[in-house]
Each structure stands twice: as C-alpha cells, then as structure tokens.
Amino acid sequence: MNDKNLPASDEGALARLAATIESRKREHGGDPETSYVARLLHKGPDAFLKKIGEEATEVVMAAKDLDHGGERSKFVGEVADLWFHSMVALAHYGASPHDVIAELERRAGTSGIEEKALRKAQRRASEEG
Ligand SMILES: N=c1c2ncn([C@@H]3O[C@H](COP(=O)(O)OP(=O)(O)OP(=O)(O)O)[C@@H](O)[C@H]3O)c2ncn1[C@@H]1O[C@H](COP(=O)(O)O)[C@@H](O)[C@H]1O
Q1: Is residue 33 within 8 Å of 67, Cβ to Cβ?
Q2: Kindly report the CA angle at 95 between 13 and 107, in degrees rounded to 5?
Q3: pLDDT average, residue stretch 42-54
Q4: Eight-state DSSP code of residue 35
Q5: Under the phi-then-psi rule, with left for phi > 0, alpha for psi from -120 to 50, and beta for the rest, what region is 44?
Q6: Which atom in ligand 1 lies closest to the alpha carbon of residue 24?
Q7: Which residue's C-alpha comes closest to atom 37 of ligand 1?
Q8: CA–CA dist 73, 110 (Å, integer)
Q9: Helix (H) or strand (E) holding 1
Q10: Cα(36) to centroid of ligand 1, in Å?
Q11: Among protein residues, the one whose CA lies closest to atom 23 of ligand 1
Q12: Where do the structural domains in the chain lie, given as residue ranges?
C-alpha cells in the first residue's frame, strides 16, 4: 500500500461487491424475489436514489450522535449503507468503484481551496469574454 491507494484487500472488497452487484442485473439473472440488489435495480433509479438520500441523512445523524455518546460502529454502518447504495447507482449508470478511486487519485495533491479558486478564476475569465 502507498499513501494514494487503498490496501489491496480493501480495493478487493469493493471490486468483489461491484462484481456481485453486476451479477444481480437482470440480464445476468438477478432475481428480485431473493436478491435485495436485483430488487433495487428492478425498481429502477428512483428506488436506489431515494435510498442514497436517506442513507446520507442517516450518516449525518449518526455523526452528530457521536458527540452525545453515539456508537462509532453505528456511524460506520451508516457510511457502509451509503457506500453500498451508491455502488448500486454506479453499476446502474455504467460506472465502477475503480472510476471513483481514479477520480480521487486524479485530485490527489490539489488542495480543495486551490481547486475552487481556479474554478472561480476560470468562470470569471469565461464571463469576461
Ligand atoms: N452490502 C450490502 C448491503 N448493505 C445494506 N444492505 C441492505 O440495504 C437495505 C436497506 O437498508 P435500511 O437500513 O434502510 O433497511 P430497511 O429499513 O430494511 O429498508 P427499507 O424498508 O427502507 O427498504 C437493508 O435491507 C440491508 O440489508 C445490503 N444488501 C446487500 N449488500 C451486499 O450485496 C450483496 C448482494 O445482496 P443480495 O442482492 O441481496 O443477494 C450482499 O452479499 C452484500 O455483500
């Protein structure tokens, strides 16, 4: 592992979950009766996008609870739910965790403050003409 990459086992876990999600697509025979992923994909984007919104809210609530005796494991579990449902969305829209990791790697070393200032300057330049 180096400071830019996930440990191989972590990246492997994301890749394995992504492969399972892919296998639940209906063209691979995923069954909405027996598979939660197949059920979500069968219901369509509104179902899993709604879950992403709910899970994001649950992450925020669990994080806020940490300051009042909340369990760290509860917070981690909510983040896992958010990642999982986001991975269902990635699969539906033809993207993968690898794409997200590549995007994070592309950003590595560029401060968010620097990046935002650059974006503002570019916007100003394009507005001016
Ligand atoms: N990682 C997950 C995972 N995380 C969360 N969930 C499910 O996500 C659902 C929604 O979470 P909620 O906390 O909102 O639970 P809920 O209140 O029952 O949900 P709703 O009533 O709101 O629908 C729960 O039923 C969880 O079990 C997951 N379901 C599946 N996986 C992975 O996906 C694989 C394939 O799953 P199946 O397609 O079901 O075989 C599994 O082997 C796991 O690796």
Answers
A1: no
A2: 80
A3: 97
A4: -
A5: left
A6: 38
A7: 35
A8: 31
A9: none
A10: 6
A11: 51
A12: 13-95, 96-128
Q: Are 32 and 38 in contact (CB under 8 A)?
A: yes
Identity at 106, one-letter amino acid code:
R
pLDDT tens, position by position, 70-127: 999 999 999 999 999 999 999 999 999 999 999 999 999 989 999 999 999 999 999 9
- What is the residue with the minimal CA distance to atom 8 of ligand 1? 81
Max intra-chain CA distance, the chain: 57
Tell me the C-alpha distance between 102 and 108, whole Å: 10
Task: Measure the CA–CA gap between 9 and 128, rounded to whole angstroms.
Answer: 49
- 23 ligand 1 Cβ < 6 A: no
User: Which residue's alpha carbon is nearest to atom 21 within ligand 1?
Assistant: 51
Please tell me whether residue 33 adopts helix, strand or coil conformation: coil
**Right CATH for 13-95 from 3.40.440.10, 1.10.357.20, 1.10.287.1080, 2.60.40.2550:** 1.10.287.1080
List the one residue out of 53, 35, 52, 58 whose CA is nearest residue 87.
52
2: confidence class by pLDDT, cuts 50, 70, 90? very low
Is any ligand 1 atom within 6 A of the Cβ of residue 24?
Answer: yes
